[in-house]
């Protein structure tokens, strides 16, 4: 397991070596292949996970039976904290979207004991929850008030922030999502999202790839998202 990813994960980066070693000793490793489900929405919950390698999607089935994507998480990001502080069922389904996903996990019971006397990690978990609530509020607001191209531009920026790599052509964002999954993340019909992307591409703001995009004019995308 690549321990460096965990050592640099925002949640654990404040820990001293001794605490980190204790945490790593309690962790289990799980490997998933693309399309494999770690757990389903509604399952009972007893572990917190951190992504070590690859990406996962967090999804929910809406009342109409359609999938919506809450988030895509990659290396260093943590999930499974909602059921830690509010015990009950998993609030989303977690599925691997890259060929291979490696996860490190910790039982909620072990974590709660371990958190005693480590306020920096507790504060980190609160910051994580607050950030997720803020983002969820933004998404709700955008679903009501923002047009689909704006939501597409915002989703590209969010993915670029975490997965983007600077290249000569622009920021290369390998999101590993199918067109359908990208549409589920944006919360619009696949045709609508494809049309927005094709329009951005025609204007020279992005170059489209299979499961990725190169943002060639970041300024325009930022303006479209604003
Ligand atoms: P839990 O409910 O234990 O299992 C599913 C996890 O998905 C949940 O904890 C959170 O870690 C994560 N999750 C749920 N909703 C969101 C969201 N809106 N944004 C990011 N992560 C989320």
Large-scale geometry: globular
Q: What's the CATH superfamily of the largest domain, by name?
A: Jelly Rolls
Ends apart, CA distance between termini: 39 Å
Low-confidence stretches: none
> How much of the residues is beta strand, in percent?
25-35%
Percent helix among the residues? Answer: 40-55%
- For the largest beta sheet, what order do the strands appear in spatially? 1-8-3-6
Radius of gyration: 18 Å
- Which topology of the largest domain does CATH recognise? Jelly Rolls
Q: Give the structural class.
A: alpha+beta
The largest sheet, given as strand count, sense and whether it forms a barrel, is: 4 strands, antiparallel
Q: Number of DSSP strands?
A: 12
Give the helix tally: 9
Number of structural units classed as domains: 2
Bound molecules: adenosine-3',5'-cyclic-monophosphate
Please identify, by name, the CATH architecture of the largest domain: Sandwich
CATH class of the largest domain: Mainly Beta
SSE string: HHEEEEEEHEEHHHEEHHEEH
- Mean pLDDT across every amino acid position: 94
GO molecular function, one term: DNA-binding transcription factor activity
Pfam family, one: HTH_Crp_2
Keywords: Activator, cAMP, cAMP-binding, DNA-binding, Nucleotide-binding, Repressor, Transcription, Transcription regulation
Protein name: CRP-like cAMP-activated global transcriptional regulator
């Amino acid at each position: 397991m690549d321990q460096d990813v965990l050592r640099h994960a925002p949640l654990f980066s404040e820990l001293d070596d001794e605490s980190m070693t204790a945490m790593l000793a309690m962790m289990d490793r799980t490997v998933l292949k693309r399309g494999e489900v770690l757990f389903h929405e509604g399952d009972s919950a007893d572990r917190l996970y951190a992504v070590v390698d690859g990406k996962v999607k967090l999804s929910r089935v809406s009342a109409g039976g359609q999938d919506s994507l809450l988030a895509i998480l990659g290396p260093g990001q943590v999930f499974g904290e909602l059921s830690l502080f509010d015990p009950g069922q998993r609030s989303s389904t977690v599925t691997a979207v890259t060929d291979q996903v490696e996860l490190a996990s910790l039982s909620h019971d072990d974590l709660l004991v371990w958190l005693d006397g480590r306020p920096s990690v507790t504060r980190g978990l609160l910051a994580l929850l607050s950030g997720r609530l803020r983002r969820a509020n933004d998404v709700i607001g955008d679903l009501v008030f923002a047009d689909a191209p704006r939501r597409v531009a915002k989703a590209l920026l969010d993915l670029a922030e975490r997965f983007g790599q600077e290249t000569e052509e622009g920021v290369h964002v390998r999101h590993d999502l199918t067109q359908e999954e990208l549409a589920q993340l944006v919360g619009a019909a696949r045709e609508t999202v494809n049309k927005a992307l094709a329009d951005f591409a025609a204007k020279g703001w992005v170059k489209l790839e299979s499961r990725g995009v190169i943002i060639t004019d970041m300024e325009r995308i930022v303006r479209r998202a604003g």
